[in-house]
Every structure is written in C-alpha cells, then in structure tokens.
C-alpha cells in the first residue's frame, strides 16, 4: 500500500490519471468533511489533508465547492463545440459530482442543451458539428477513438423537454430498452419494469393499467414514464433538459421531488430556465453565458454569494 497525503483539490486529478490504468484501489480519506470514497482496482490510498485549497496550484483549475468534495463523475476539459462557424461552447471546464444534482442555467441560446447533448454524444450526427477538448466520464474520454457510443448512451439516460413516450403501452415503453438489447425477458423483464416505474414514482398510478397506451397518461405522468424508460436501461447518469417546462405546477412539483430521490442512486444533470427550480432541486449549479461557463458552485453559495457580477445580474433578473 502506498499512502499519500495531498491537498484535497489534487485528488480528482490523481484519481483520473491513475484510474485510466485501472490497476489501483483508490481510497480517499477526506479529513475535511470526514467522508471516505472508494474506487475499484488495487493498492493506492490517498489521505486528503484538511488544508485550505492552494489557489496557485496548477491542478486546481476546476475547484470543487469546498467541503463537498467527492469523486467527479464527469469532467469537461477545455471542451469546445462548433456548429459550422458558430462557436457554441467555449473552453468549458466543469466537474459534475457523483450522486448529486447539478443544475445548468443561463439565458436562451447560451449552449445549455448543446452541453447536455455533448455528454452522450447526441450532437455527433449534426452536420458541421466539431469539437475539441475532452469530456471524461468515469476516467474515459468519451470523444476518444474506439468508444462504443451505444454503451455510453445506455450508461447515460436522457429526458427531454417534452415528454416523448413511444406509441406503445405503458409496460412496453419501459420494457423497450431491455427488450431490444435482449437483456431481460419474462419475469425478469416484469421486475425491471416495476422497479423502473417505482423509481420514477409512477408505479402506484399505473400498476392496474400497464397495458393501456402511454398516451392515456397526463403530461406529468408521461414525463415520469420517460424517466422510468431511462431507468430501465440501468444508467449511471441522467441528463434532463428542462424536464418540467411543458408541465403544470403540480406535475412539476412531482418531478422535482423525484429528482431529489433519484440522486440517491444516480448522478443527475438538469438544465433549467427556472432559477427557483435550480435552487430547490440542485446541489450544484453552473451558470452559462454565450457558450462560456461563467460560474460553478454549491447552489446555495452561488445564489447567495455569486462571485461574478454577470451571475448576480442574472439571478436578480436584470437579464434572462
Ligand atoms: N442542431 C443545431 N444546428 C445548428 N445550430 C444549433 C443546433 N442546435 C443548437 N444550435 C445553436 O447552438 C446555440 C446554443 O443552442 P442551445 O440549444 O444549446 O441553447 P440553450 O441554452 O439550450 O437555449 P434554450 O434555453 O433556448 O433551450 C444556438 O446559437 C443555437 O442556434
Ligand atoms: Mg435548450
């Protein structure tokens, strides 16, 4: 066993470098917040010192919200994206924490959806789309050569602005993924459907009408059905692009409560125009403006003490 004591802000850098080789067991003892994190492999223990972050350290380019340090599930590293000549994302450096909700907010057209779609490579098929930099998911650059995009999308579920159930029954919507990938059938499939519907807080409302058309459901129920469909693929990360914008306040409230429970098992990124929603549902918030990540922090800190004047003006409704 090799033990190192390091500044906590160096930990993710070290973990990312070492976990690529897949041979280390990394146990991080975070003396600052008393947590312990594990990563599979064998043999390296890091002890995180409780010293304050050193701003001059070159490894601290993407500082963590201090005190909530965890293993980053996703990092974007100097990520740029162009649609033909339109430079839509500019040097975006963002670190998404595991099993937490991160909100992305910003005015219309600033690149929120584009960033979200970049995470499961949904922009790839758009004519004239070009990227540079990296998006690292569990130590793997998803834009690297030879990645299996289908596997990536199984691990990263997506929920869109408007509920988009398939023209099938409630059951078949949720069973769709496991069925086409041939990962379950019979009783096992029924179990996956039930668990996914329970996970999406919809089971009690639909358990007696699983074979009715999904279109019989209300908008809010349809959106939870889409979340259940995403859960059936057993994702690790769930991307939500304004999942409540087409819903009434009651349905919105149910989805917001659901987002709060999803983070117990999943990492969630939610794009929202609604500042109050970001405040209610998220642990961390990223504020974007014309393709740049202006600020990223613990949600409460970002709303109460924004570092950037631009963020403060956005939060105070001076533009939007
Ligand atoms: N498929 C596409 N082809 C070309 N340009 C696109 C495409 N999708 C988005 N863009 C451009 O990328 C920029 C960012 O758009 P994006 O949809 O990411 O913004 P957004 O922040 O999600 O906005 P909104 O809040 O209105 O949803 C815009 O200039 C948009 O015109
Ligand atoms: Mg959008």
Please explain how this structure is put together.
The chain contains 11 helices and 14 strands. Helix 4 packs across helix 5, helix 5 packs across helix 7 (219-232) and helix 7 packs parallel to helix 8 (249-262). Strand 2 and strand 3 form a beta hairpin. It starts with a strand and ends in a 5-residue tail after the last helix. It is globular, with a radius of gyration of 20 Å. It has a 6-stranded mixed β-sheet with strand order 10-11-12-7-13-14, sandwiched between helices. The chain has a 4-stranded mixed β-sheet with strand order 1-4-2-3, with helices on one face. A 4-stranded antiparallel β-sheet has the order 6-5-8-9, covered by helices on one side. By secondary structure, the protein is an alpha/beta fold. 32% of the residues lie in helices and 28% in strands. The longest helix is centred in the middle third of the chain and has 14 residues, at 186-199. The protein binds adenosine-5'-triphosphate and magnesium ion (MG).
